[in-house]
């Protein structure tokens, strides 16, 4: 069983041509402390998950082409290039593309981004509240009902491969 990982050479990227935005916000330490203090004071469960290969989910805003990787060059078409639609590790815009993609996914599930911290997402409905903290590919969830958390985690696992699932009661 062999695996390979394509990694882009970011040093070849030209700002304004190959990428526009590279900044990707992460959760503020103060927000983490507040939420991790709030959860136990309300007897809320805390769940942590890590999204594997998170940067590969992001969509690219610019048209980008990459050379065929060495060892995988098509002998019939050696001068052909590959059009890149998704982010790759090594692209300067990969963290931002992941943040944008995941944020859009959360908005589609009824979450709102906090005004004070754009990596804190809040979901409220008649059943309760979920607070989601996003730090790159790590996600911490807490909320008023364990069943609500577990339901949302199932949604995440239907789309992403996750690891390091931790639960604190």
From TrEMBL:
<feature type="domain" description="Reverse transcriptase Ty1/copia-type">
    <location>
        <begin position="2"/>
        <end position="158"/>
    </location>
</feature>
<dbReference type="Pfam" id="PF07727">
    <property type="entry name" value="RVT_2"/>
</dbReference>
<protein>
    <recommendedName>
        <fullName>Reverse transcriptase Ty1/copia-type domain-containing protein</fullName>
    </recommendedName>
</protein>
<dbReference type="InterPro" id="IPR013103">
    <property type="entry name" value="RVT_2"/>
</dbReference>
